[in-house]
Structure formats: C-alpha cells, structure tokens
Amino acid sequence: REREREREKLLYLIVSLPPQSRVALCGGTHGNEMSGVYLVRELQKLEKVGSATLTTVISNPRAVQMCKRYTDVDLNRCFTDAILSSPVTDATPYEVRRAQELNTLLGPKGSAGAMDLVCDLHNTTANMGLSLISYSAQDWVILHIYRQIQITSAPVRFILLDLPLADAYSQDSLGKHGFSIEVGPQPHGVVRADIFNIMKECFNSGSAFEGGEVDDVYTFVKSIDYPRDPETNQITAAIHPQLQDRDFCLLHPGDPMFLMFSGEIVKYEGVEVLHPYFVNECAYYEKSIAFHLARKMTLTIPPLRVKRD
Amino acid sequence: MTARRVAIFGGTHGNEMSGVTLVNLWIQNGKEIHRKGVETKPFITNPRAVEKCTRYVDTDLNRAFTTENLSAPSGDDLPYEVQRAQQINEIFGPKGSPEAYDVIFDLHNTTSNMGCTLILESSKDHFNLQMMHYIKKAIAPDSCPVLLTEHPLLKYSTSRSVAKHPIGLEVGPQPQGVLRSNIFESMRVVLKHALDFIELFNEGLEFPPCTVDVFRVSEKMDYPRDTNGNIIAMVHPNLQDCDWEPLNPGDPMFQTFDGTTLRYEGAGTVYPTFINEAAYYEKQQAFVTTRRETLAAGAIKKT
C-alpha cells in the first residue's frame, strides 16, 4: 500500500483530474531538449496509475535520434489549424507529417475525441526556472495545475500566450486542456541532474483546488531581436551581462539590453516597464529573437470541482 | 625560434560561438589583434558548420588531422572535414615541417564549467609553457587552468596541431549555439595577453626559467549505459559544474533517473574536467580525469 502510494505520487497531479481523464505527456518535441526525453522514457517503464490513463509520447523521434532540435522544420510550430489540415505531398517536411500524425493520436485538435490534457516537456538555455506556458487565461484547469506545483528547487511562473485556438502553433494545443513545461537553464544536448529533478518534482503536487488569486502570471507583449549588421544579418552584440540570466526581472527604460562587440551599450527604449524572458535562448537566434517581453499580472480563479462517479 | 606567423582559428566547431564571433570580427577589422613584427591571421576553419550552426557536417574537424587523413589522396568523395583538414594543412602547415605556422590559437567553447582553460599538447613545449605562465600571471586573481592532453591513447589530432606551437582555448560554460557576453569577453582578454606575450618575445625579451602547474589528462569516464547504449544515469549534482575540483574515491559521480547515487571507485584523488560536455555524449565521455603536475619551462629568447 505504501509502495503503491509512492508510485502514485509521481503522477498525483494527473490522477487528481476526473476519472477516465486521458492525459498525454510528451517529450522530445525538440530532439535536443533532454529532460523531457529521459523523463518520458522513465515513465514509459511505469504501468498505468490510478484512474487516469497516461499516454507517453516521444514527439519527434527522428530529431531525438539525431539529438537536434528538428530535422526539416520546428515541430512545435506545426500545430496551427492551417498546417494540420494542409495536404501532404512528397515535398511535405517530416515535421509537418509528424504533426498530422500526432493530431490523429492526441487530437483531433478542437474535437470531442481529443486528449483531456496534453503536457509537453521542454528545456531552454535561458534562466527561466520552471515556467508553464499556455494559451488561455480562461482555462481554470491549467491555472489550478499551476497553483498545485510546489517545488522548492526553482522559481515557478506562468506565461500566457494570447492566441485564438486556430492560430495556436504548439503541441499542447491538441488537447482540450494543454500546457508546456519549460525548465532551464540547460544547454541543448545535455542532461543536467538538477534540471531533470526539477521537472520530475513538478509532478509531486498538492491536492486542493480552492479558488483565489494566481500570482506570477506573465503575458507576452513583444519580442526584441539582436542588433544586426544590415548587410550580413550577423548579430553585432551579445545580451548585456546585466540582463543575461535575469529572466523575469524588471526591464526599465534606460536599462542595458545589449553589449556591442565594439563596446557600446544598447539600452531599452520602450515606455513600459516589462519582464524579459527566454533571454538568450539558443533556438531563437534563427527566429530573430533575443528575448521576449511580458507584462506581469494576477488572475483570480474560481474553485475547481472535480466530478467523480 | 621565432614567432612571426600566428593564426587564430575560430569555428573549428561551428556552434561554439565565441571563437566564431571573434574571428569574424577580426577578419573585418584586425586592429585589435595586430602586433609589431608578427602576422596574425584570423581564420574560420569550418565555414560550412558555422553556416549551419552545427558542430560538424560529416565528421569532427578537431579529430581529423591524423597522418592518415592528411596524406590521403584528395578527392570530393572524402568527408567534408577531411578535405578541409587537407586544405588547412596546406595553408598553415604542412604539419611537422619547417614551413608550418609558428603558433595557432584554436578558439573553443564548452558546456562544462571549465572557466578559461588553456590546452597544451606537449609537456616539452617551452615556448607554450612560458606563454601560459605569462597569461596566468596577467589574469590573476582569475584563474586559467592548463589541461595537458599529452597521453598515448587520449591525445587527438587537432586543427591547431598543424602549427609548431598549438594552443587551445576552451572557455565555458556556454551552451552550443549561444553567445554569452561574459564568456566572449574573457576569451578576448586571454587572447590579448597571449598576443602581448608574443610581441614581447619578438622584441627580444628573455623569459627566465619558470614552473607551470598543469592538469595531465588521465582517464576517460563514460556514462553508465544499458545494452542499447542509452545512458541510464546523469552526472551527479555534486559533481556537475565542479571541473578542476578534487574527486575522491567514494564521492558521488552519477545519479540514476530514479535517484540512486553511483560513486567514484578509483584508487586516489583525481581532478575531473569536461564534466557534462554536450558534444561528448556521442564520444562516450561524461568527463575526463586529470592528475596535477608541475612542469618546468626553460628560459626562452628570440633567436
């Protein structure tokens, strides 16, 4: 009984959902983000626990095999309605085909047959601790899950992307409820024990679903790119040492943002005080993003009543 | 000896950004690396890998400078990096000949917490030992560990080995594909001191005998793996980021995914480095052990 309880603890968070909940846990959506790859492989060794059925998925097996973010295109940008319904030809990139397969497995997105909850595991080179990322401020289930997460080894925050479901591009949007877990900092291709344990600890959580205030919620406002050479498009500066590793701290007008290789400082010239995150994420250089900026807010959510038979 | 022809290599691994950035900067404007009496040539060794921001395209360039590769008949069917090695050997070598470049600095980053490490290939290279002694003094109190890779089995054929005096600069921790300002600036400062040393040497300054503390590479340690070759444990949190610190028998070394500790069972204290380097998972290396040694360098003066 005790040992059974120990094993259940690992998935308590998920078991707390209504019975017959179908939950999917995905790792390796980016093949070089190692915590999720190894956590999913470990969970695949556990049997079905409690009353929720858990589906574990290695989302991008080819990229995992090559230990690369993706082979043709970023899988985690392929889940918009448009891409999921696009016709497949010989020229269709691997990840687009795979996204459509995953839509069949975990979705279809937006339908009654979709997974109740999709949780997608990621790492970042940015110093973001543990961040939950989701689409809607109206999804009380996700916000309750966020409040449940009690870990001592890293700060925990919630990032809101305000997009209609059709435009939601990441894998978690396949489920009726979905979120990504982002843990950092960790270099891509590396598995750090401390980072792995943070992700693992995330699944040992509380059980109360009272309503109330949800703090540390950040809503995406805009992105800032690196200064670049107009001819070659090569970056001409690095994130300033005073901003490096300081995700979620305040960036005021006049604060240093970039240190040019020539020694000049580029300062933040926005009007609003905002919070930077994904500061110096490796994968975002090619997306022309040095960091995102967010507004911090507090949400109020009602208590969640879990329906039981 | 003379130190008249010096090269600075960046992008030997295309995703190690400090070297790529510095060398590209200096190709555009070489003022910072100019020193009296010496030709300093900045050079991107693996442009295709740099363009794709990947470590290598076909094979690791920094393992490709073997005698076998360099003497193989050239051809398009050879792996890209082998062709590249042959080209580099022609420009900066031939390796082992009197025409080879005097000094090559090879700029690297690591995901390991190695600080500013200097890599020495031969314990008998008095010129390099004197340079490293000079650099260590110049950046004190910051430290600059010296890794000696002289080892019958573990030594590998680097791009810099084409020169008479090869020096590796390994700065970390930095994720692959990422440029961190502090890491970039530390590499820049170390190189500045190295070039200052060369300038002083060329001006005729005599450097008296000295000693240099080094870490000599000893043993490669792999991750515990299952029968399919997958790793079954991670570098232990107590060892992670502890490059150059003593690892004693009985100290935690690995942690399995379910939390079990595996301990170091060697005979004596070692100093691990390259702890959890991303690129070494595929080379079956979690870290490498080293032993401390003091090397003596004789006096040197330009002839």
UniProtKB/TrEMBL annotation, chain A:
Annotated catalysed reactions: an N-acyl-aromatic L-alpha-amino acid + H2O = an aromatic L-alpha-amino acid + a carboxylate; an N-acetyl-L-cysteine-S-conjugate + H2O = an S-substituted L-cysteine + acetate
Keywords per UniProt: Cell membrane, Cytoplasm, Hydrolase, Membrane, Metal-binding, Zinc
Membrane topology annotation: Peripheral membrane protein
Residue span(s) of domain AstE/AspA barrel-sandwich hybrid: 216-296
Cofactor annotation remark: Binds 1 zinc ion per subunit.
Binding residue positions for Zn(2+): H30, E33, H122
Cofactors (names): Zn(2+)
Keyword Hydrolase attached: yes
InterPro entries: AspA/AstE_fam, Aspartoacylase, AstE_AspA_cat, Aste_AspA_hybrid_dom
Record keyword Metal-binding present: yes
Domain Succinylglutamate desuccinylase/Aspartoacylase catalytic per the UniProt entry, residue ranges: 20-203
EC number annotated for this UniProt entry: 3.5.1.114
Subcellular location: Apical cell membrane; Cytoplasm
GO cellular component: apical plasma membrane; cytosol
Location of the active site: E182 (proton donor/acceptor)
GO MF annotation terms: aminoacylase activity; hydrolase activity, acting on ester bonds; metal ion binding
Any one Pfam family match given in the protein's UniProt record, by short name: AstE_AspA_hybrid
Family from the record: Belongs to the AspA/AstE family. Aspartoacylase subfamily.
Entries under NCBIfam families matching the protein: PRK02259.1 (NF002601)
Name assigned to this protein: N-acyl-aromatic-L-amino acid amidohydrolase
Species for this entry: Oncorhynchus mykiss (Rainbow trout)
TrEMBL record, chain B:
Enzyme Commission code(s) on record: 3.5.1.15
Compartment(s): Cytoplasm; Nucleus
Domain AstE/AspA barrel-sandwich hybrid: 211-291
Gene3D superfamilies the UniProt entry points to: 2.20.25.160, Zn peptidases
Residue ranges occupied by any Succinylglutamate desuccinylase/Aspartoacylase catalytic domain in the UniProt entry: 4-198
Chief site of localization: cytoplasm
CDD domains noted in UniProt: M14_ASPA
Keyword Hydrolase belongs to the record: yes
Pfam families: AstE_AspA_cat, AstE_AspA_hybrid
Record-listed Zn(2+) binding positions: H13, E16, H108
Binding site for substrate: N62, R63, Y156, S157, T158, S159, R160
GO MF terms, alphabetically ordered: aspartoacylase activity; hydrolase activity, acting on ester bonds; metal ion binding
Record-listed N-acetyl-L-aspartate binding positions: R55, E170, Y280
Cofactor note: Binds 1 zinc ion per subunit.
Domain of life: Eukaryota
Cofactor: Zn(2+)
NCBIfam families per record: PRK02259.1
Family, as annotated: Belongs to the AspA/AstE family. Aspartoacylase subfamily.
Protein's name in the database: Aspartoacylase
Organism: Oncorhynchus mykiss (Rainbow trout)
